[in-house]
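Much of the work behind modern protein science is quiet bookkeeping, done one molecule at a time. The fold becomes a row of whole numbers, each drawn from a learned catalogue of backbone shapes. The protein below has been through that process, and both of its lines are reproduced in full.
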Amino acid sequence: MRSTVVGLIIAPFIIYLALADAIPNVFLLLNLVGMLVVVGGTISAGIMTYGLKEIFKFGKFTLKVFFMPKSNEQEIISEIIKISDAVDKNPNSLGAYQNKNLHPFLKDGLRLIDNGFSDDEISEIMNNDVEKTYERQMSEVELMKTLSKYPPAFGMIGTVIGLIGLLNAMRSEDQGAAGNIIGPSMAIALLTTLYGLILANYFFVPVSDNLLQRLYHEINIRKIIIEGVLLIHKKSDPIYVREYLVVNLKPSDREQITLGAIQ
């Protein structure tokens, strides 16, 4: 969350400094018609591509980039080791973990063990869940990447519209009227390209890359959970479970798990 907020602050500041150096009054860069062409065109193209229902979900998964992931590898491994230790001491304690604040995927795995599924069945069910999670969240990333193509395109459309108005004004015999048209036409011609580039490269592309990194993080956590659940199902020694799972962490993060996970 912090990095996202920092990025949101730094980028507009850099753009503002660049514009302020070139133009005394940066408010001259505000053009409602140009914004309508770029933003409205992007939304309409998105609706045509994905449908109205998917576009309504746009804001929901965009907000993900402003929040920290709910789980990390270190916490998940610690929980798995503690559960392994508890189950080693009391094999009937699995059911109690359904009421605890654990990663939902870890709860699912423990429920499968408690229901008597075999190793192969647990592995098949949980790996299938990982595949579906990847497909579902990748569709969000693809939506953002697709939308990132539209703002520059509509910016160019706005530029062409502005140039048409500009050339038409230059043909006018009434120089006073032409002067009134040239200014707005130039604004649309230049600003829509700027709006399109900023919207694509400052919003859509960074958000899609952020969602992709979060997806990789979530998939990695789920793979660790699958490994841990299968080890618990095999009734592996908690020390072995710890040593097997900590290889997923950086060496600097392993010491805390090694010393503190099992009390």
Observations:
- Residues 259-263 have pLDDT under 50 and may be disordered.
